[in-house]
Every structure is written in structure tokens, then in C-alpha cells.
Protein 1
Amino acid sequence: MILLYLGNNDPHRHAFEQLFHTLGQSVRIIEDTQTLATVKELFEQKDAQQKPYPLPHPIMVMKDIDDETFTTIMEAIRSHGLSMQRKAMWTEHNQHWTLARLADEIEEEHRYFDDLNQLYSFFQESNQKKQDDYTAESWKQYTGVLIALYLEVNKEQPSADRLKEMLRQAQQAQDALQKKIK
């Protein structure tokens, strides 16, 4: 079964409903008045209407969906010109969370991976820079910081706060690079 939150008045609601029907998947569309119910209550359809609490993004929560079915669903969504960026599987751990809390966790995860990708972008950009274009001292500082950050991020996954600090350090090192005067 699939829980699907699209927000009120989403123009793609009917397309998603038809898509899941075609795939033979049971789907339950979740409204703003249901987002404070637990994931378990929503899957068991034991939720009660509450004060509307809109979520910032659509979300899809799946239960008892294997990898092959998940891949089929995602390919069908893409092939129909639809998108679903925030998705989760029902777990023993998250079943007692409200849908709103699960959405918050997914948002935090997206922010984390955006930050991680940004840090890796610093590493990639450093490979495009030419040492001869910069002063020896600023290049030494820059490469020292980036190498230390690279080793750290590849040794163990940093916390979200540490990752933010690592991004700040990478930006600061890049900003401190000084071009040689020719």
C-alpha cells in the first residue's frame, strides 16, 4: 500500500491516482487534515480528521513494496512526466511518527545530502584549479584544508552540524586563495 500526500489542490492528483491504479497498487491520498496522524494510523486507516497542517512538499510512503516494484513505480512516475522527490518506506522505527514528522526527517535528509554534494563540488572544483595561478602560501593553505576535509568526510559520515562547518571551512579556504600577479 502507498500513502500519497500531494497537498491540497494538486493538479497531478488524478494522474497519480490513475497511475497507481494502472500499476495495481493500492494508494491512499492523504489530505492536510491527516498529516498529524501517525504513519501506522494512516496505513490502518484509523486516523481522525484534525486541524489542517500542510506539508512543504509532496511525499510518498510505501509499505510492503519490494525493490523491483519500487523501481517500476518510480519509472512509471517519470515516464508519465510526474515527479516524487520525497519518499520513504514504512518501518518499525517510523510507524509511530506523524506524517508531518516523517516529512521533516526527509527534509533534513535532503538538506544533508545537498550539503554533502556541495562539499564534493568544492573537491571537484579544486581539481580544475591550477597551482601556478595562485600564490604558493594561499595554495598550500587551500589544498591543506581541502585534503583534510576530504579525508574526514570519507573516513566517517559527519553530523549535519559538522558538515555545515566543513562547508564553511571549504568556502573560507577557497575565498582565501590569492591569484598570482603576472
Protein 2
Amino acid sequence: MISTVIYFIGKVLTFPGAYVKAFFEHLIARAFSIPVEDTKYLRFTDGCGHVEHDAIGSKAKIFFYCLLPGLFTAIIGTPMLYMGFAGLFFFKVPTDSSTMLMFIVYCILFYLGFSLCANQYPLMEDAIGLWHALYDGANLFVKIVLFIPTVLIIAGAFLERYALNILLMAGTVAFAALTA
């Protein structure tokens, strides 16, 4: 129960990213003909920011379902995070009356980018399902090629389950801001 509360707090703090990630999960599920059970993107469960779907039978479908939504949010969120970070910490835009609008724009870009980058991983159940699908019967070449991406997906899903990814990102940003 406490892990669900921590997870939900992390999703509330990064709700734009959680919503966009759930949208991409829904989009990928529809593109791969995966039946979707619940289309509510934001709900008070451990599935907040994710789409509830039926079991995925194909190894390729489950791999791409776990990989592509996070990749899309990273592609959108990373430039926003970098531009917001550069404006706030590298260029150090002042908050006086002449540059207040630019400061607000950089703050919004930074928050949206941080929010999107903090929501890159699938549910832990989907990540474990990916592991079982790939390593309970796949050929040796597939196991070798997809080992590192699968382990990264599982590790990220574990970190996101306890909102540790948000803390790690905040620590990384704070360290970068102090050294900029």
C-alpha cells in the first residue's frame, strides 16, 4: 500500500509526463492490436499513468510495447529539459521585469521536460512479462541482442515503481546545476 502511495505521489508531481506516456501506451496498444481494458490515464492505483491491457502474446509486440512509449516521451522531453536547464542554470536568466517572461518559459520547459523524462518506463508487470516472454523460449540470438535493453527496461520500471527515478533525476539536475 505504501509503495502505491509513493508511486501515486510521483505521478501527481509529474502528471503531464504520466498523461503523455499513457497516451503513447494507448497509441502503441492500438497500433499493435493489443486489447485495452481501461482507458483512464490517471487513476489512484499502481497503474496511474499507464493503460490497462490484456495479455500480450507476441514477443515482438511486448518488447515494442515496453520500449516505444518511453522512447517517444524521451524524444519529446529531452529537448525541453535541456532547453529549460540551459536557460535557468547555464544562461542564468534573471528574474527582473524585463526577462520575467523568458524565465517563466524556461521554468515551464524545464518542468515539462523533467516530467516527460521521469515517465519513460512501463509498469513492473509489463517489464517482468517482457523478461518471461523473451527468456522462456526465445532463440539464443534474440536473448543476446535484447538482454541489455530488457535489463534497462526492468531496472527503470523498478525505479519508477517507487518513484526513485524522480529522486535520481532531481539529484542529477542538482549536481549539474551546481557544476554549471
